[in-house]
Structure formats: C-alpha cells, structure tokens
Specification:
The structure is a single chain. The protein is an alpha/beta fold. It folds into 3 domains: 2-136 and 306-326, 3-Layer(aba) Sandwich (Rossmann fold), CATH 3.40.50; 137-302, Dihydrodipicolinate Reductase, domain 2, CATH 3.30.360.10; 347-433, Alpha-Beta Plaits. It has helices at residues 10-21, 23-30, 62-67, 84-93, 103-120, 137-141, 158-170, 174-183, 192-195, 198-212, 231-239, 306-326, 363-373, 408-420, and strands at 2-6, 35-40, 58-59, 73-76, 97-100, 124-125, 149-155, 222-223, 242-254, 260-272, 284-291, 295-302, 340-341, 348-358, 378-385, 396-403, 406-407, 424-433. Strands 7, 8, 9, 10, 11, 12, 13, 14, 15, 16, 17 and 18 form a 12-stranded mixed beta sheet that branches. Helix 5 (103-120) packs parallel to helix 10 and helix 13 runs antiparallel to helix 14 (408-420). The model has no long low-confidence stretch (mean pLDDT 95). The structure holds NADPH dihydro-nicotinamide-adenine-dinucleotide phosphate and L-homoserine (HSE). NADPH dihydro-nicotinamide-adenine-dinucleotide phosphate (NDP) binds at residues 7-12, 40-43, 46, 62, 77-79, 83, 101-103, 128, 132, 304-305, 309.
C-alpha cells in the first residue's frame, strides 16, 4: 500500500514518525506493508531535523506525485482551499483514496470532494479535521447511524479554550491571555482564524453535515469570536455560577410551517459550571452529542498538535488501506435529509444582559416593558449599586437580567431598544447563556 504524503509540517512530520515507529503493526493491521511513495512540500531543502525518511522522497510537484501509478492513497496535511482542492479532486476522480485534515477545505467545498469520491469510487476520510485526536467523525458517520442526533455542542478550538480558561483562572483580559497563548505556542502569529471563530465554524459545518445528513458549509454557520469577551464578562459569569466557552452548537429545529431545519452557530456563551463542557480546560476539546436513543455522549481529548492529529490521520489511513485491499469502499456521503439551515435570528437561546441604569422609580418597569414588547420572558433580575459604589436613589445601578429561551432576533431587538432608552446609561455586556434549563 503506497502513500503520497502532501505536507510535512507539524502534522505531516508526525505522520512520518508514527509510520516509521509502527510500521510492523500497521502492516499487520492492514494486511500489507505501508510505504511512502513521495512527500510533497513547498521547500525541499528545508531542515527537517532527524525525520526518519529518505530525503529523495521529497518533491515540489504534488500533482505529479498524485498521478503516479504506484500511489494508492493520498494523505493531505497542507491545508487551505487551493491548490489542495485541485489535488484532492484529481486524486479522488482517479480512484485514489484520500485522507485529509483540511477542515477549511471540507467546510468551504466539501461537496466537490464528496462528488469526486463518488465519481472515482474512492474513499474520503477526514477524522483529523475536527477535534484532532478525538474519535468523533467515525462515531457520527458510522456508530450513530442507527440513531437520530438532535444536538451537537462542542468546544472545538483549543487556542480559544486556552485563552478563555486563562481569563477564568487569573482574571486576565483577552489581550493578556492571548499573549500567554502565543508565548506558549498555542496561538499562531496571526491568531485570526482561531480568535474570530473561523476555525470553529469550519468544524461546526463538518459536524452538522454528518449529524444531520445535510450539506452544511462554512457560509451557513453564524460565527462570532471571543475578541469582545472582557474580564468583566468572565467575572459576571462566575457570579452566576457559570463559565464562558466558545461553543459550536448544531441543533435540529423547525420553521414556522413545522418543517424540520437545522441551526449551526459558533459564539462565546456562558454555561453553568455543572455542565460537562464547563470543566474542559486549557487547550482541550470536547464535544457533547445528544441523540434520541443513545442519550447524552461526551467525546474529550486533544484537539490539536502534531502527534494527536497524526494519530487520527493514521487511523484513517488504516481504514482506507483495508478497504482498498478488500476491494471495498466505505459508505459515501449521507446528505439525503437536505434540511434547510435556519438563520441565526430564529435560533433559540438565552441572553445575559448587564445594564448600567439610573436608579430611580419606574426604571425596572421601563426596562421590563422592552422585554415584554419583544415577547422575551425574563428569568432573573439582579440589581446592585453601579461599580460596587454607594447605593441610593439618584445614583446609577447595575442591572443584570437573564432571559428565558427566545429567538435570537427577538433578544437582539430587545437589546437594541434598551440601548435607546435614556434611563439606560450603557449596555455593559450581552452574552448568550447555554446549557441551562
Ligand atoms: P504546517 O504549516 O505545519 O505544514 C504545512 C505543510 O504543507 C508544510 O510541510 C509545507 O511545506 C507544505 N506546503 C505548503 N504549501 C504547499 C504547496 N503549495 N505545495 C506543497 N506543499 C506545501 O501545517 P500543519 O501541519 O499544522 O497543518 C496541516 C493541516 O492539518 C491543515 O489543514 C490544518 O488545518 C490541519 N490540522 C492541523 C492541526 C495542528 O495541530 N497543527 C490540528 C488539526 C488539523 P514546507 O515544509 O516546505 O514549508
Ligand atoms: N488552531 C486549531 C485549534 C488547531 O486551536 O484548535 C486544531 O484544529
């Protein structure tokens, strides 16, 4: 079984190391030896340390490597949309099985890859693309295919989880925690994809597609990052017995006509400390799946890093290699349900709103009236002197309101109207609350 390895960076070099260290076991598991036919990189002359591999295998011609007759399986760990899409479509159409960790490409144009796989009768596996080492996509794609998944809630970005965990533990602000994440090598030099939620949104699209048998792309996912989360938000969450996490949430729902839909979103949210995802700290990932018959399932582990991600890549390599030897192919993409993706405005959620208001008669009534006009029910109200200062009529007060579940558009309209009231000095923070009642 001969592999074309595209990419030899953080993940690719660990794939080579594991292939070398476990070659006898892998051969026994597959039923044939596994060999590297070539390794495509950008810079052949780059110093790659003591990588246990023949330097003559390196090439800067990925397409030439893919097209070789002696290549059975293509492993792509380069990343990005192009030229990776061209390479993988070429490989799949030619009947070569593909293993990829490329979440960005799968979320942007997974359809092109699935269609090419169907055309070429090849396997397309991508376990490493979501939550690194955690076996998650195979359970969704195979083990849970007899069940009906209602909701998937996950922490799928290690960098942002590290930052939010540091803010929670030390009281640091976002910038300070990001600096620490960069120093420790969690955040990249340009952290945009992580902190603005693009990475998590790509993973959310992949999870939703598998869970709901529907093609969901990155553009279907409502995305908000963590750059606006403040130390005050974290403190406010703590006061409520909550913590703040960047969540990806994919859930079934229904439209006004009762037709089944899905909603897929990524945003920071408060979750109660008792929620299983609240204790997921540092750069770890975890995904909570709620299924009709299976009930609640939790998947936890390392979502990034060379070796953990290479573990998932090699698991896929063994699976596709076995299939090829057996002359078989895994079940193709399941998108039969073709559910409509609901806009964020229709997603059902709860809000935690902190207001700085004038402390005088009628203020609570006026504020409550805004919620009532938008058909948003208030769950709790807490009032204290502004900034912890002296209480008393005529001064300002901090008002913290938590709502019951309502459509996001109604909640957003409520906040807009509150901002316009002269008794509301400022809307200090607005955060969604998940995982409660
Ligand atoms: P790196 O940046 O460390 O490595 C990228 C590799 O691709 C390098 O070897 C580079 O060559 C090669 N490369 C880049 N452009 C080209 C090109 N045009 N032609 C040929 N080779 C090229 O990336 P990672 O290993 O971190 O990530 C790889 C993939 O895995 C991405 O899709 C990423 O999203 C995914 N992933 C990564 C995780 C992680 O923890 N790192 C976790 C989960 C998924 P050269 O070495 O010469 O520069
Ligand atoms: N940047 C990603 C993270 C890597 O922080 O989780 C894994 O996909």
């Amino acid at each position: 079984m001969r592999l074309a390895l595209l990419g030899c960076g953080t993940v690719g070099s660990e794939v080579i190391r594991l292939l070398h260290e476990q070659s006898a076991d892998l051969a026994a598991r597959i039923g044939a030896p596994l060999e590297i036919a070539g390794i495509a990189v950008r810079r052949v002359g780059r110093d790659r340390g003591d990588l246990p591999v023949d330097p003559d295998l390196f090439t800067t011609d990925p397409l030439g490597l893919i097209k070789r007759d002696d290549v059975d399986v293509v492993v792509e760990v380069v990343g990005g949309i192009e030229p990776a899409r061209t390479w993988l479509v070429e490989a799949l159409r030619a009947g070569k099985s593909v293993v990829t960790a490329n979440k960005a490409l799968l979320a942007e144009d997974g359809a092109a890859l699935h269609d090419a796989a169907a055309e070429g009768g090849a396997d397309l596996y991508y376990e490493a693309s979501v939550a690194g080492a955690i076996p998650l996509l195979r359970p969704l794609r195979e083990s849970l295919h007899g069940d009906r998944i209602n909701r998937v809630t996950g922490i799928v970005n290690g960098t942002t989880n590290f930052i939010l965990s540091a803010m929670d533990a030390t009281g640091a602000g976002f910038a300070e925690a990001l600096e620490e994440a960069t120093e420790l090598g969690y955040a990249e030099a340009d952290p945009t994809a992580d902190v603005e939620g693009f990475d998590a949104a790509a993973k959310a699209a992949i999870l939703a597609s598998l869970a709901f048998h529907t093609r969901v792309g990155a553009a279907d996912v409502h995305r908000e990052g963590i750059t606006e989360v403040t130390a005050a938000d974290v403190a406010s969450a703590k006061a409520m017995g909550c913590t703040i996490k960047l969540l990806c949430i994919a859930a079934r729902g229904a439209d006004a006509a009762g037709r089944e839909t899905v909603s897929v979103r990524v945003h920071p949210a408060m979750i109660p400390l008792a929620h299983p995802l609240a204790s997921v700290g540092d750069a770890f990932n975890a995904v909570f799946v709620e299924a009709e018959a299976a009930g609640q399932l939790m998947f936890y582990g390392r979502g990034a890093g060379g070796a953990p991600t290479a573990s998932a890549v090699l698991g896929d390599v063994v699976a596709v290699a076995r299939n090829r030897l057996a002359g078989a192919r895994a079940a193709s993409e399941s998108a039969y349900a073709d559910l409509a993706v609901r806009p964020m405005g229709e997603a059902l959620t709860r809000y935690h709103i902190s207001l700085d208001v004038a402390d005088r008669p009628g203020v609570l009534e006026a504020v409550a009236g805004v919620f009532a006009r938008h058909d948003v029910s208030i769950a709790t109200v807490r009032q204290g002197p502004a900034g912890g200062g002296p209480a008393g009529q005529g001064s300002d007060a901090d008002l913290v309101i938590v709502t019951h579940v309502a459509p996001d558009a109604a909640l957003a309209a409520t906040v807009r109207e509150l901002r316009g009231l002269d008794i509301v000095r400022s809307v200090a923070s607005v955060l969604r609350v998940e995982g409660g009642q």
